[in-house]
Write a structure and sequence with these properties.
By secondary structure, the protein is mainly β. It is built from one helix and 22 strands. The strands form four sheets. Strands 2, 3, 4, 5, 6, 7, 8, 9 and 10 form a nine-stranded antiparallel sheet that branches. Strands 1-19-16-21-13-12-11 form a seven-stranded antiparallel sheet, with no helix packed on it. The longest helix has 4 residues. The N and C termini lie far apart (50 Å).
Length: 297
């Protein structure tokens, strides 16, 4: 299987990216990216999966039929993934959702096969915890909109990471391909990338995945650009490297077979020591690139 899917390679029908468990050759994680023109719309059945509709650029309305609770959500969205935290909508399994956009835009559908059917819900941007992780040239910003301890899902875990140009993220390399209670969980992971260009020049970065001795022996060293996807069924993943002058964004989608929905990772033993150096260095002063809006009273 090809684990690096350049932009367009994973396109199907209305989707610029369409990664299903079947196409990925695994059991749980899914990602679709939908581009809508002004006034455009798209309807999809959630099937056996739960989904979060996440605006990448632009705003939209999400209407859910058979979703329990509220059935219409107005998403303000954002100009781009580099300009702000966004609100989002949760679509349960066994429902039908329609996404419409007056102004057009690009929208991620992050999905996971699941068993429980939770209510359709709205996630306000003001409730998204923004975390600054690492320090020095390992500094990055994490928008934890769908983290396991933040937003209730059955299986789905999803976060956004913004890495300033010249910095390394997903470092130290880590993995989650073995079951060790309280220490490591089994999660399939999808990385979806976007970059901030400069004066019309597209951005780029690099992604490394190295074999952990488990699973398929996934081994990737890829130049990644706007719209690229990297599939990680197993292995040490990281670093994700943003070249100087171009901020890197990636959307992480994770799910797995374990009963407990948890992001438990194990650092690569050769590089774990780097965490001990972080308290002695300042966080990159360019961060945060933005913060979540304040909650209204």
């Amino acid at each position: 299987m090809t684990h690096h899917l350049p932009a367009g390679r994973a396109a199907s029908g209305p989707y610029a990216v369409d990664v299903t468990p079947e196409k990925a050759g695994w059991g749980h994680s899914a990602l679709r990216v939908l581009d809508l023109p002004p006034g455009g719309g798209h309807t999809f059945d959630s099937g056996d999966s739960e989904w979060i509709v996440l605006p990448l650029a632009g705003g939209c309305t999400v209407r859910v039929a058979g979703g329990l609770g509220r059935n219409a959500f107005e998403l303000t969205g954002r100009e781009s993934v580099f300009t702000g935290v966004t609100d989002f909508a949760y679509v349960p399994r066994d429902a039908r959702a329609t996404v419409t956009s007056t102004g057009g835009g690009r929208f991620a559908l992050t999905g996971a096969r699941c068993t429980r059917r939770l209510p359709a819900r709205y996630g306000p941007a003001s409730s998204v915890p923004v975390e600054l992780r690492g320090s020095g040239n390992c500094s990055r910003q994490v928008n934890n909109f769908g983290a396991a301890d933040v937003f209730a899902c059955d299986r789905l875990i999803a976060v956004e990471v913004v890495t300033p140009g010249g910095n390394w993220s997903s470092f130290p390399p880590h993995k989650h391909d073995e079951h060790h209670p309280g220490e490591e969980s089994v999660l399939e992971e999808i990385y979806y990338f976007e970059f901030a260009g400069h004066d019309g020049t597209p951005g780029l970065g690099y992604q490394r995945v190295s074999p952990s001795g488990r699973g398929r022996g996934t081994d990737v060293l890829a130049e990644v650009r706007d719209g690229d996807v990297v599939l990680i069924p197993d292995g040490w993943h990281g670093p994700s490297m943003a070249v100087p002058g171009h901020h890197m964004y990636y959307l992480n989608v994770m799910a797995g077979p374990e009963a407990e929905r948890a992001w438990l990772i194990r650092d690569h033993p050769d590089h774990a020591w780097i965490r001990d150096t972080w308290p002695q260095q300042p966080v990159d002063p360019r961060l945060p690139l933005y913060t979540a809006p304040e909650r209204s009273a």
